[in-house]
Specification:
By secondary structure, the protein is α+β, with helices and mostly antiparallel strands. Helix content is 32%, strand content 29%. It folds into 2 domains: 194 residues, Ribosomal Protein S5, domain 2 (2-Layer Sandwich); 88 residues, PDZ domain (Pdz3 Domain, Roll), CATH 2.30.42. The strands form 7 sheets. The chain has a 6-stranded mixed sheet with strand order 8-2-6-18-21-22. Helix 4 packs parallel to helix 6. The protein is globular, with a radius of gyration of 26 Å. One of its GO terms (molecular function) is serine-type endopeptidase activity.
Length: 341
Amino acid sequence: MTRRIAVLGTGVVLLLVLGVLGTAVPVPYVAQQPGPTYNTIGEVDGEPLIAVTGRERNDVSGNLNLTTVGVSRPGLSLVEAVQGWFDDEISIVPQESVYPSGRSREETQRANREAFLSSEERAEAVALERLGYPEKVVVRGIPAEDSPSAGRLEENDAIESIDGRPTPDTAALDEVLGGIEGGSTVTVAYTRLGEPGTVEITTGRATEREGALLGILVTDRPSAPFDVDIQVQDIGGPSAGLMLTLGILDLVGDTDLTEGAVIAGTGTIDEAGSVGPIGGIQLKMVAARDLGAELFLVPADNCDEALDAPQPGLVLARVADVDDALDALADHRAGRTPEGC
């Protein structure tokens, strides 16, 4: 065997070894790619994504799609990571940025789901506030089957008074309950789907303060004569807030926001209606392009990143708050170009 043949054989063996290692040895990265989109004024598996109880949904057309990012399992192989780095529609990011150490994958998914549910609540509150519905003490939930209010009050009931004493906000509710002896029976006046009602409740005894308790979770938020229920599973994180807000406004407001157009977007929403930045904006733009969207609503703080990866035929609108988003949709309906990034 000549020296050249020996070197060549050694090189082939090394390449084979490296190839095997590259496909088998995991690296601390995950792949992100465009995820599914959901039409907030449409249906998922035959059911409305946003269900309205207590009034008819508006007859609207078009799309207001929230966009998502799909994430691979932890532990990409070296080969998969390298392939992803050369793919314009895949983003390779450190695993720690998606699955923080010290938290299991299931715990991360649960935290992301809780963030989405909180985003739902803010979206509904912002939409109803913009439509002019008054803020009241609203039941968020009844956490225990043996709660004094179980079977008497329901989620989304607005608490109007206790024993005739008004409860316009949670501070007033706490003050009223603080002056009632635990175990006594009180008359709670409430509004449910726009209809007033009263119920007798035997209170529990508060343990962390003086007075009684009703055994409910409450919040101060606008109350409407109808209920809104967002019915979409398998989405996590807060980035759908803007599009959920617009979906609610379209379905129960006074304007057909799209007039048949396909609109997509993303962005968090806070209690004041401000739109916050999100991750994966470029991948979400790819998903919007594939959907056939004409307009993409971009959080103001994501504009620079969005401009670095323009998608053919996709108009970008810069939005810092809900009013900006509504203005962009109005411009689009009128045939004008919205304020861009």
